[in-house]
Design a protein that fits this description.
Helices cover about 50% and strands about 20% of the residues. It has 11 helices and 12 strands. The strands form 3 sheets. A 5-stranded parallel beta sheet has the order 5-4-3-6-7. A hairpin with a 6-residue loop joins strand 8 (about 270-280) and strand 9. The chain is an alpha/beta fold. The chain has 4 domains: about 1-55, no CATH class; about 60-125, no CATH class; about 135-260, 3-Layer(aba) Sandwich (Rossmann fold); about 265-330, Beta Barrel (OB fold (Dihydrolipoamide Acetyltransferase, E2P)), CATH 2.40.50. The protein has helices at about 1-25, 30-50, 60-80, 90-115, 145-150, 150-155, 170-180, 185-200, 220-230, 240-250, 255-265; strands at about 130, 135, 140, 165, 205-210, 235, 255, 270-280, 285-290, 295-300, 310-320, 325-330. The two termini are about 55 Å apart. It is elongated and about 110 Å long.
């Protein structure tokens, strides 16, 4: 709405300017109606160009400008090289020079816009986050870690410090997920957008939406790894495969799932725990409870005690792809050495 207010104001000024010229320079504009039409046409043309270029970012504009300058420089060098000295027709020479500058200008713009930081650092000015020549700690977030939400808890608890970088293509993916027709997928996308708002409300960490992109890459993982390498940022993700791709390319990364597993307390056979049984187990007579960190405890002969808090003794552990499953027996009433680990 604000943009259209500015456009209407600009169009009004163009119309007023056309009318003013018709009053001052009658030799150029015959009457006021013609002057108003010229002003309206000029303003409307510029607004139409503005509307067509609404997806054209400042980064792309700066790249195109640099490419045009570079192409024009090459064309000027060829023109000054006396290569066309034998063209005697002035009109033909003008046409040759025009084609020369247009061709090299176009080629320079296209090459500049297709380039990335690794190809030519000066062409695409990636946003730099540097203050007083000191490197900042950049935290590059992918879609999975934003939707997960634990990154917000870590940042708010001051376990992570630095500038949070969210690529625009990640933001666009979140918006696409939030607009999905599948309810669960839509809910995940909206949760991700809420997490971003929560991160932006945290005043201790600055959040930057980064415009850097790699149009030639179709895979989101490849874009993230290349951007992390270009910015010197640490990549945060929950995607195991993305972490391995980053590791192969020597890009520092943190997998929050792996971090969560590493921070879980160590449980050994014979340890005594206290927990609440909440449901039946897979086998007959078993009860299931959970520790505070989410570890599942299978209690033999615990079915009659479902809904109650019991003391159990660990008898064995089973490592699975999702984590550790603890197997335990219910302690007798006279057991001692209670070690409380959960509610």
């Amino acid at each position: 709405m604000t943009l259209w207010v500015i456009r209407i104001l600009f169009l009004s000024l163009c119309i007023l300017g056309g009318y003013a010229i018709s009053q001052v320079r009658t030799d150029l504009v015959e009457n006021s109606t013609f002057g108003v039409m010229i002003g309206f046409g000029m303003g409307g043309l510029l607004i139409a160009i503005d509307e067509m270029l609404k997806g054209f970012s400042l980064r792309a504009f700066s790249a195109a400008t640099f490419g045009l300058m570079l192409g024009s420089l090459v064309a000027w060098m060829l023109d000054r090289s006396q290569l066309f000295i034998f063209v005697n027709d002035a009109g033909l020479l003008w046409l040759v020079r025009l084609c020369l500058f247009l061709s090299f200008g176009y080629i320079g713009m296209v090459l500049a816009m297709r380039s990335n930081k690794e190809d030519f650092t000066l062409i695409i000015p990636f946003v730099r986050f540097a203050k007083q020549n000191e490197p900042d700690n950049l935290l590059l977030l992918d879609t999975s870690v934003i939707i997960d939400g634990r990154i917000a808890d870590l940042i708010e608890a001051n376990y992570l410090a630095g500038i949070i970088v969210v690529p625009r293509f990640v933001l666009q993916e979140l918006q696409h997920i939030a607009d999905s027709d599948v309810p669960l997928r839509r809910e995940r996308g909206r949760r991700g957008l809420e997490m971003l708002s929560r991160l932006q409300r945290n005043k201790r960490n600055e959040v930057k939406i980064h415009d850097g992109d790699f149009p030639e890459e179709t895979q989101m993982d490849t874009k993230l790894v290349r951007l992390a390498k270009a910015l010197g940022a640490k990549l945060f993700t929950n995607d195991y495969n993305l972490g391995k791709i980053a590791e192969l390319q020597s890009v520092p990364y943190v997998n929050l799932n792996e971090l969560s597993q590493a921070l879980k307390p160590v449980i050994i056979p014979g340890e005594i725990l206290s927990l609440r049984l909440i449901r039946e187990g897979k086998d007959k007579g078993q009860g299931i409870g959970y520790l505070n960190d989410g570890t599942m405890v299978v209690v033999n002969q615990g079915q009659p005690r479902i809904g109650q808090s019991v003391k159990v003794q660990v008898i064995s552990l089973l490592q699975t792809g999702a984590g550790v499953i603890v197997f335990a027996d219910i302690m007798k009433e006279n057991s001692v050495n209670l070690h409380s680990a959960a509610n």
